[in-house]
Every structure is written in structure tokens, then in C-alpha cells.
């Protein structure tokens, strides 16, 4: 009995969004990046959150009335949580690499 969720069997709300012209089962070279693509995307998101938090901090310091302190603090916390998660992933990857390198062949 196969209970794995594939793009054809998972609920519509969880199905990945494909660019126009790509079928659900179609394998492409550029779109099928796997773990490396997901990691690159996550790092880009963390970087964008940090840049946004820095921009909002600068705007608050310049006393821009359109930027609230609450919004800035939330952005800073989001950036900090994203950075901490990225750091944990990096540490796990380094530990896994070390474990593999220390294996007896």
C-alpha cells in the first residue's frame, strides 16, 4: 500500500505551483533543483528579511512617520529567527559532513 503524497495525490491546497507550460509529472533540468535549490531559496529569504529589517531600522532612526516602531521590531525579530534557523541548519550540515567523513569504509 503506497501512502506517499505525490503531486497527483496530494490535496489541491498543498500541490506545488508550477509555471505555465509545465505538467505535474514533467521533469526539467532547471526546475528540479532539489535540496540545493530549497536551501538557496531559504538563504535568499533570510537575506531579504535582514535587508528589510535594516531598511526599517534606518527609517525609524530618520523619524519617518510612515514607519512604525512596532513594524520595525517585528521585522527585526523575523530576521533574527530566520538567521537562527539558518545557523542551526548549517551546524547540522557540518555535523553530518563530519560524521560521514569519520565513517570507516
From TrEMBL:
InterPro entries: FliE. It comes from the Bacteria. Coiled coil: none annotated. It is found in: Bacterial flagellum basal body. The keyword NADP does not apply. GO terms for molecular function: cytoskeletal motor activity; structural molecule activity. GO terms for cellular component: bacterial-type flagellum basal body. One of its GO terms (biological process) is bacterial-type flagellum-dependent cell motility. The keyword Transmembrane helix does not apply. Keywords: Bacterial flagellum, Cell projection, Cilium, Flagellum. PANTHER family: FLAGELLAR HOOK-BASAL BODY COMPLEX PROTEIN FLIE, PTHR34653. Belongs to the FliE family. This is Flagellar hook-basal body complex protein FliE.
Amino acid at each position: 500500500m503506497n501512502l506517499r503524497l505525490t503531486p497527483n495525490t496530494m490535496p489541491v491546497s498543498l500541490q506545488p505551483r508550477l509555471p505555465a507550460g509545465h505538467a505535474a509529472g514533467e521533469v526539467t533540468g532547471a526546475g528540479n533543483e532539489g535540496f540545493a535549490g530549497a536551501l538557496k531559496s531559504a538563504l535568499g529569504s533570510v537575506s531579504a528579511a535582514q535587508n528589510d529589517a535594516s531598511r526599517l531600522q534606518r527609517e525609524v532612526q530618520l523619524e519617518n512617520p510612515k514607519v512604525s516602531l512596532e513594524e520595525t521590531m517585528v521585522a527585526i525579530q523575523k530576521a533574527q529567527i530566520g538567521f537562527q534557523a539558518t545557523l542551526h541548519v548549517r551546524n547540522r550540515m557540518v555535523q553530518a559532513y563530519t560524521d560521514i567523513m569519520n565513517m570507516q569504509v
